[in-house]
Write a structure and sequence with these properties.
Blueprint lengths: L8 E6 L3 E7 L5 E9 L1
Antiparallel strand pairs: 1-2, 2-3
Protein name: Mobile element protein
Length: 39
């Protein structure tokens, strides 16, 4: 069993002008709606 199974996950999709960030709880539930960060 993975030692990281109960960790939160943050995904960042980086592109030239902006990035999209999504956050998931250990249960797979969305913590917050994905949001955009302008560079």
């Amino acid at each position: 069993m993975s030692q990281f199974l109960n960790d939160f996950v943050v995904g960042i999709d980086v592109s030239f002008e902006f990035s999209i960030v999504a956050m998931l709880a250990p249960t797979g539930e969305l913590i917050r709606k994905p949001f955009r960060i302008d560079h």
